[in-house]
Amino acid sequence: MRMKEVIVDVRKKKAEVRNSDSVGPIDFALRRHDELKSHDCDVYNPRNALCFGGGQLLQYNIPGTHRLITAARSPLWTGFYISSMGGFAINLAYAGINYISVESKGKKFSLIGIKGEKGRVTTKFIEVKKEQLDDIYFRGFGGQRGLWAVQNYAYEALKRWYGGSKFRVIATGPASLYSRMGCLCSTVISNDRFQFGQDDFAGRGGLGSLMVQGHRVFAVVVGGNNEVKSFDKAKLDKIYAKTGKKPAQAWKDATEKYRYIPDLKTGGTYGVNFTKLQDKCLMFNWKSSFMTRKSRQKIYERLIRPGILEPFNREVIETKSWFNCGEPCPGVCKKRHITKKIDYEPYSSAGPNMGVFNFRDVESVVHRIDTLGFDAIEFGTIASWILECLDNGLLKSTDFFLDVETTFDPEKFMKKAGEYSCKNALFIRHLAYMVVARDGIGEAVAEGMRIGARKLDKMFKDRLKGKSFKDFAVYLAHGKDGSLAPSQYWAPGLFAPIPLPHLSKTYYKMDIWDPVELGKGIAKRYVTELGIDELGICRFHRGWAEKVGGDLMMEVSGIDLEDHARGLGRRILDYNKKAGAQPVFWESRRVKDIIYNYLIDFNSISPNKELGNWVHRFGNSLDVNARKYWSKIRDSFEAAV
User: Fold this and answer.
1) Are 504 and 539 spatial neighbours (Cβ–Cβ below 8 Å)?
2) Is 578 within 8 Å of 39 (Cβ atoms)?
3) Of 566, 535, 639, 618, nearest in space to 57 by CA
4) d(CA 254, CA 544)
5) The dihedral sign for the CA sequence 155, 156, 157, 162
6) Along the chain (641 residues), what's the average pLDDT of each consecutive run of 10 residues?
7) Three-class SS of residue 624?
8) Alpha carbon of 353 to those of 372, 392, 404, 598, 600: distances in Å?
C-alpha cells in the first residue's frame, strides 16, 4: 500500500505532501525525529515535531483499527513518548493520508485544516494573536469554554471549507499554553453537532503543551471525502480463523469488558475496575498502600461502592448510555453521563485518590480538569499530592487564597464523607485555575511534580524541617527534569524504569513481585503493545489483535510485526539515550514505600521465602534495597527487549 505523509511547516504556513516509506505511525515519528535531531534540542524547540498517524489497516473498514497514534519528545517526560486517541484516524483515511508532522513555529497561534478530496490534499491556516486565543480559552466560544470552545471555534471556522466532507477537530485547552500537562482532545461530530461524552484524549505526556508552546498551534482539523474500503472477506475470515471465531464475533468478544459484563452487572473501565479492585482501589495520594486490607475494604464498602460505583451503575449502565469513539465498533466503550465521558483512571486519580468519594463531586472535578485541557491522570495525582501537603502542614490554606477546610483523614471521611468530598472537590477546582493562571504555587505545579517539588522546597524552605515536598509526590523520574504520574493501579510494573511507563506499555497486573520476572513481563508487553500501536489498533481490541495482528500486517505489507515492533522498542531506547532522557531511580520516599507495601501485601496473601527476604531487606534499608529492586527490573527489561 502506498502511504502518504504531510509535513506541515507552521512558520511558512505550507504543507508538503509526499509518499512515505514508513511502516507505521511510530516508525514515521522516529524517522522524522532522527532527521530533525530533536534529541539535541530543548523539548519546546520547533524541531521537536508533533507526529500523528494511523496504521497499515487505516484504509479498511475493520473495527478498532482507526486509533490515532501521537508521538514526539514529551515536554513532561522529556523522552520520546506515545499517546493515542480512539477513532480519530478514520479521518486520516477520509483525507487520503497516513501521517502528519507538525514542525517549526508560527509568529502567531494557528488553527490548521488538512483536507483530502479526489486524491488531492490541501491545507488551510487561520492565525490568531495570543489575546484572541486567551479569549477563546477563558471567555469562551459557542457557549463553551476551554478546549470545548476551541473545538467550536475550529468547527465554525472551517465547516464551509470542508463542505460536505467528514472531518474532526483535535483541540487544546489553556493547560497546553500555561503548563507542561496539556492534553489533546477530540469529540465525535455527528449530524453537524459535537457529541459531548464521545470524547477521546491523547492525554499522557503533555503533547498538547508541545503543540501550543512548541509550535503555536492550538487545533488541527483533518478530513475529506475519500472512501474507506472493505477488507477482502475471504482473506479476513481465513486470518481470523486463528481466533476460532468469525471476525464479527472476535470483535464483539474482545471488547466485552468495555461494553457490559453480565456477571458483574456493569461495564467499561470505570464499572469493571471499581467493581473488581475493591481494597486495591487507590485512596488519599496512595496512602491506602499503608493501610491493612481490612481497613481498605472498609473504606471501599462504606465510601467507594455506594458513593462512586452504584450511582454510575444506576445512571449510566442501567440507562445504557453507551457510545463508540467515532468508528463502527461493537465495544461502545464510551460510558456517558449526560454529556460527560466516564473512565476509570481520571475518576480514580481525581476521585478516591484525592479524597473525593461522591460521584457528582468527582464528575465536577474531572469536567473542570478536562475543560482546561489537563491530562486528568497527571493533574489528579498532582492535586492529591497537594492535598496531602496541606494535611501535613507543608502547605497552608492561605497559600491558595481560599478559605475551605480540606482533609485527608480516612476516619473523618467515615463520619462526614459527603461534606469532605465536597470541600476537597471545591479546592481542586480552584487549584486547576491557579495552575493555568500560574498564580502562587500554581506557577510551580504547572511544571509537573518533579520540577514543582524542587520549586516548592525553595519557596517554603522554612517549613520543611527535614522533609521535602518530593517525599509525598508520586511520580517516576526521567532524565534531568522529566517526570510522569503512574497509572492508577497498585502494581510495581507502573513504576518500572522503562522508556514508556504508561499503562499500555508495561505489565500492570498485580500478580508478579519478582523483579527479574517482572522485567521480562514488561518487555513482552512493551513489544506487543508497540506492535498494536504501529497497526493503529485500539488496545481494547487486543484480545484478537495479539493473535492475528501479525497476519494482518503480513497480508497488507509483507512485514513481520513482532520483529518490527522489537526494532521500534530498541530505537526508542537509543533515541532517549541520545536525548539524555533515561530512567532515574525513585526520588520520592512515597514511591519507595508504595513498592515496599506492595511486597508486604503480596507476601501476606501468598507467602514466599524469596519474597519474604525482599520484604526483610526493604525493612532494614529501604533506599539500598529499593535501588537493587529497581536495577534488577531495568536490567531484566533491557536484556529482554
Assistant:
1) yes
2) yes
3) 535
4) 6
5) positive
6) 91 96 97 97 97 95 95 98 94 97 97 94 98 97 96 97 95 98 96 90 96 98 94 94 93 89 93 96 97 96 96 94 85 86 94 96 96 97 97 94 89 89 96 96 96 97 95 97 96 96 86 96 96 94 93 95 97 97 97 98 94 96 98 97 93
7) helix
8) 20, 16, 19, 17, 21
